[in-house]
Every structure is written in structure tokens, then in C-alpha cells.
Amino acid sequence: MGDDSPTTPLSQEAFPVTERWIYLNNAGRAPLSRGAADALAEFGRESSRSGCLAFNDQMARVERTRELAAQLMGTSADEVAFIKNTTEGLAFVANGFPWEAGDRILIPSCEFPSTRLAFSGLASRGVDIDLVEPEGPGATLPIERFAAQLAAAPHPTMVVVSWVQFAQGWRTDLRDLASACHEVGAILCVNAIQGLGVLTAEFGAIGVDIAVADGHKWMLGPEGAGVLSITAEHLDRLVPTELGWNSVVPRGDWSGNGSLDPTARRFEGGSLNLAGIAGLGASLELLLGAGIDRIEHHVDRLCDQLVAGLTASGRAVISDRGRGRSPIVTFDPLHARPEDLCAGLRSHGVVTAPRATGVRLSPHAYVSADDIAAALEAIDRCDRPDPVLGGTRPALAEGLR
Questions:
Q1: Is the pTM of this model over 0.85?
Q2: Which of 91, 122, 88 lies closest to 105 in space, CA to CA?
């Protein structure tokens, strides 16, 4: 639908979704690239042709994807395990850590439900869960919001936080938070799903101890193929809760006498989602080939363009674009309910999502400045007490692309 601008880090030709939509819901579920879709299809073809004879090649692809994921996160391949989704990764942490009665966990109150629910059952074991309250309408969480609770005795055992808050887009300063956690002996566990793939990650260098993310958002992969990163320092503290044949070495020793894998692969208890990991690998190659720093800069400019256009039209931007810049921009409509406005926009070829009290916009690196201009025009058309639901097919909507 839009121009394939040379300044767009990811070619629109690589994303069939752009033939019909201005897609601004990458914080929800991102579209697959042609490469990822082809990798999934090829997995099916080779499995149907060769059955078990394709297994060694498929496992080699898994290890290549592990290396790519480690590069993306700024960590070591031996510290990376594949998981089904973010919820499973958080559950591994909640259920496998050696908690003791009186331990404390800090979790922001504005977290995505799984981030809190994964740890909620620990109360029955005497673990205290203290909520960190954000400040202001943008749900901002500067380090100062954690300071008093980090300093309070007993010091927290773990801090669990999202890199980017899912609804309004606050971006946590992980370097400063990791430093503050380590000063009091706390472990930092990060839900990275709303940043990994669009923001430059240096988890190893800045002191993130554990990070989890599914691949179906900013990593542009299929659902059911995510990553867990845990530093070597804490690897032995986290007990695998789903031990199986794939948790031990040497693999293929069916005697059951193998030893626990010395790497994070120990968390991959059984058969992996080989198809999903193949698709994820293709997406990671695309992202890393374009350069995450270039992607981050491009998306940040698109978000600035959104904010400028929204504020010029009198709409309030909820997201904090000062200290916590992220790829998410959420705004309050002037007239329409968020759900109605999203429906109206979709009829005009623009895909968004209602979140918090507003509408969430989340462009990725295949979105152009022309797309953003067209989306802003569509918002002006549809943000009415009775949104314009249109009478044209999205792919044929005139004047918007």
C-alpha cells in the first residue's frame, strides 16, 4: 500500500501485510515477513518429504537461531533457552527459584497480567509481593519509584519489570535499575517482549540477570517460539521445573543416566517447536541484517511524527516521550471511544489497538513516514462521536496511502 522508502530499514516488499494495511499494532501481534513465512513452509515441506531424516538439519537451525537470539539480546548463546511464550518463561522463574519465607518481590502495579500472575502463587510460601505504583497519567516508572522499596528491609530478592510497559509505552532504564537492584543484592528479571527486536539490547553488559520474551511482537516471529536468557551466575540457582530428555547431555543417550546440561538448554525439557524456531530465525536474520540501532532510530522518528500530528490536532498523548521513549504511542481520542475509533481506522486500512483509556499505535521498521501521515489523516476522519466506518475496501481506500 505504501512507498518502499529507501530510509525504511525493513523493505515493505518483505512484508505482504503492507499491500493492504498500514499496520500499527506490532505491540500486539506483528505480521510475519515473507522470509519467516517461507521458513515455516519449508519446514513443513522438508518434514513431509524426509520425516526424521530432516532432524539434524533442523536442530542445526535451532542452534543458529540461538546464536542470533543471543546477539539480539547482548548475551551468550549458552545463556539462551527457547520457550513457548513469555508466560512460560516467567513461570520457570517463579516456580524454579529457591524462595524462602520472608523473601520480597517488587513488581509494578501496571504490569501485563502474566508478569504479576506468574508470581502470585508464591504468597502461599511466605513470599511477599510488593507493588510499585507508577506516577502520572503516562504510567511512568523512573528509578526513583523503586528506590524506597529497594532500600527497605528486608531488601527484595527480585525485581520483576517490563522493559516497555505494554499499554502506555513507558520504557524502563534497565541499566540504572539493574545497578540499583544489585546494590541491595536483588536479581533483575525483565519481561522484554515489548522491546526486543526494536530497541538495542545489551542485557549482559548492563546487568540484566534474567530476560524473557515471546517472538510474535517486535521480533516479527510466529507465536509459540520465545526466548529465555539467564546469566551463568544465576543458572544453577534456577531449578528446571520441566526436566526431560532434552535437559541432559549427551543428547540421544536414552539410558536416562545423562547429566544436567551445563547451559540454559537444560530448560528445554522436551521436543522444541522446530517450525516456530525456524520462522523466528528467519525474522532475527532480517532484523539483525537491518541493524537494531537503525531500526530503533527509524521507529523513534515515526513515533515523534505521530506525537507531533496528534498534538497538533488537539489530541492528548498519554505516553511519556521524555524520559521513557519507546516504540509505543498511546493517545486519547477527542470524540470516539477507543474501541470505536480502532474499528473506524481499520475500515480505512489502519490497524491499531485500544489500550488503557486510549488508542495504542506501535509502528515497526517497515512502516514509512508516508504511512504515518496517512494514519494521522485517517484518525482525523474517524475520531468523531460516530466514527466513519467507511464503504470502501481497506486496500482501495483513497487518499490515505
A1: yes
A2: 122
